[in-house]
Amino acid sequence: MIVRTWTGVVKPGAALGYIAFLNDHMVPEIRSVAGNLGITILRGSGDLHDEFLVISRWIDLSSLVAFAGPEPEVAVVPEAAQALLSTWDDRAKHFEVALVEGGQGAT
């Protein structure tokens, strides 16, 4: 399994709009790709900004490429998302899952 991570910081006051954009557009797009095993979106609220960490899970590299394109390290940040973000990672990070512990709360 491949895990893809990416972070972005929203403009002040844009957190709820960004969550709505993710829920209405990005999550369905990602979930529609064969080989996607799920997506988790984490929100870190700070005094000055809200940061989002997007974690998607993929069965293999070819399924990730089907979503991200031939250069899967390049972040997928549509213009509608860019309008809500103040900064974002230009590149995503990928990890191969080495160990999963199945304790309470694990999926």
Give the gist of this structure.
This protein is of the alpha+beta class and 107 residues long.
What's the structural blueprint in terms of helices and strands?
Blueprint: E1 2-10, H1 15-31, E2 36-45, E3 50-58, H2 61-68, H3 79-82, E4 85-88, E5 93-96
Antiparallel strand pairs: 1-3, 1-4, 1-5, 2-3
Features:
single chain, 107 residues, alpha+beta, Alpha-Beta Plaits, five-stranded antiparallel sheet, 34% strand
Could you explain how this protein is built, in words?
With about 110 residues, the chain is of the alpha+beta class. The protein has a single domain (about 1-95), classed as 2-Layer Sandwich (Alpha-Beta Plaits). It has three helices and five strands, in the order βαββααββ. The protein has helices spanning about 15-30, 60-70, 80, and strands spanning about 1-10, 35-45, 50-60, 85-90, 95. Strands 1, 2, 3, 4 and 5 form a five-stranded antiparallel beta sheet that branches. It is globular and about 35 Å long. The model has no long low-confidence stretch (mean pLDDT about 95).
The CATH topology, please?
Alpha-Beta Plaits
Number of helical stretches of at least 4 residues: 3
Measured on Cα atoms, how large is the radius of gyration?
14 Å
CATH hierarchy, class:
Alpha Beta
Name the structural class. Answer: alpha+beta
Number of domains: 1
Low-confidence stretches: none
Q: Kindly, what is the distance between the CA atoms of the first and last residues, rounded to a whole number of angstroms? A: 14 Å
At CATH level 2, the architecture is 2-Layer Sandwich
Average pLDDT over all residues: 93
Helix content: 25-40%
Approximate strand percentage: 25-35%
The total of beta strands comes to 5
Order of helices and strands: EHEEHHEE
- Main β-sheet, in a few words? 5 strands, antiparallel
Shape summary: globular
